[in-house]
Write a structure and sequence with these properties.
214 residues; mainly alpha; 10 helices
């Protein structure tokens, strides 16, 4: 069995009982997105595959905000598979720098592989699936769908973003609608355009129904 096949098996086991928006199927979609984007880029495909598969192995949202859990699990697994230290460090750098974190997070690492996996992950946060994941997580946290009296808060700090309990619809303005312009790759930007428009259409329909319009 190849390293990639073993990683897939490991991730499926680790995320067996994960929240619906951050489960194995999320990983699988990001993996497919990453492979699609990588076709148009010069990159280390093994690192892209491993980064995509392990990027959410222990999302800090589900570990009391602890951002060290994911990298530790990824390192332990890759070491057990005798991956090179260079590969391990690169994958961990992807895990540590992929997240949106309010949009004001200054990345301390950059590589083409990170750009590909980050775009792949962000594509799964927008469009039809992005909408579904957004409301799924809002329900998981028992948040209101929408409250006209609570305005979206832009330019939040990393800590404010992590601790926000605002209505789910606010998340569109605080993150989802911002992702189109943060894509790193040509392919990512192209796909993001259509998914972004889908979200705009959804919001128009949502507000119309909220106001009781025909």
């Amino acid at each position: 069995m190849s390293l990639i096949d073993k990683t897939i098996l490991f991730v499926k086991q680790q995320l067996e009982n994960a929240e619906g928006g951050h489960d194995w199927f999320h990983i699988e979609r990001v993996y497919k997105n990453a492979l699609l984007i990588a076709q148009e880029e010069t990159c280390d495909l093994t690192v892209v595959k491993l980064g995509a598969l392990l990027h959410d192995i222990a999302d800090s949202k589900f570990h009391n905000g602890d951002e060290t859990v994911g990298p530790k699990i990824a390192r332990a697994f890759l070491e057990s598979q005798n991956a090179t230290e260079e590969t391990i460090v690169h994958v961990i750098n992807i895990i540590e720098n992929i997240s949106f974190k309010g949009g004001n997070f200054e990345k301390k690492f950059s590589s083409k592989e990170l750009q590909i996996v980050q775009d792949a992950d962000r594509l799964d946060a927008i469009g039809a699936i992005g909408i579904a994941r957004c409301f799924n997580y809002g329900g998981f946290k028992n948040r209101a769908l929408y409250n006209p009296a609570i305005a979206p808060k832009l330019n939040m700090s990393k800590e404010e973003y992590k601790n926000s309990d605002a209505p789910t619809l606010n998340h569109f303005y605080e993150k989802l609608l911002l992702l189109k312009d943060k894509m790193n790759t040509v392919t990512g930007r192209k796909i993001a355009e259509a998914r972004h428009q889908y979200m705009e259409n959804f919001l128009s329909q949502f507000y119309a129904e909220w106001e009781g319009e025909k």
